[in-house]
């Protein structure tokens, strides 16, 4: 789940003329009527689970110990497996509400808590962003249609740590423009991860992503960022995916997400009345992939791979 920009307080299509579908539109009454799921009492919860209010971000970037990294790895593996389960359910006619329900059930079966649930009041276990929805889509009862694509964003809290990841999934047969958008977004994430390591500037992440996608006519969201992750769902550092001059270099033990959002049109988002869903202003499609990683003495370890 992304953070920052005009939407930083949040934590975290249908399409262009390339397909016959229309952009996905707000459905406020439906989204607000869908109740959140039960979490068994014995499952440990993050601090915000009861109130919806997360603690203030620590200013200093945490340096995790070997024991802490293994606990983060455990949470990340559950998040990875939950994401894979969600992706296996994606097909025409399935609702995002059903995907959310199944993923929620899996997470609690692992003795873990779905981190999105009641984070700043978010009503569901996962985010489901279809076509032109940039981020933070709320699962609902609208069936997915052939030709759509969807981002599933899954974060899990286990043993005091949050593991966060997301990926794109095709609904039936997606047109070439859509497939190309997903492919270039995944490639941008992979290259950004390869660029990371001890002593590397955080700004190099945005340089790597932008230098790949912009010459091809795509744009990168500047309103939503990656973020530090660990004991808190969101913490420093903020990870900008566009050209930037933010200070700071990576050190062993730092954990964060990289989660570029790449758009076909102008990468400007508008908020729906539900207070969460962010869609492209021009109706163009967007894609996003995300991993949680930790810096090591020789490079990085991708914990959600």
Explain what this protein looks like in three dimensions:
By secondary structure, the chain is α+β, with helices and mostly antiparallel strands. The protein has one domain (5-24, 59-302): Creatine Amidinohydrolase (Alpha-Beta Complex). The chain has 5 helices and 15 strands. Strands 1, 2, 4 and 5 form a 4-stranded antiparallel beta sheet that branches. It has a 3-stranded antiparallel beta sheet with strand order 3-12-11, with no helix packed on it. A 3-stranded antiparallel beta sheet has the order 6-10-13, covered by helices on one side. Mean pLDDT is 91; it is low at 4-22 and 27-35.
Topology record:
Blueprint: H1 28-33, H2 66-88, H3 96-109, E1 113-114, E2 127-130, E3 133-135, E4 149-158, E5 161-170, H4 176-194, H5 203-213, E6 219-220, E7 226-228, E8 235-239, E9 255-258, E10 261-263, E11 269-271, E12 278-280, E13 286-288, E14 291-295, E15 300-302
Antiparallel strand pairs: 1-4, 2-4, 3-12, 4-5, 6-10, 7-8, 9-14, 10-13, 11-12, 14-15
Helix pairs in contact: 2-3, 4-5
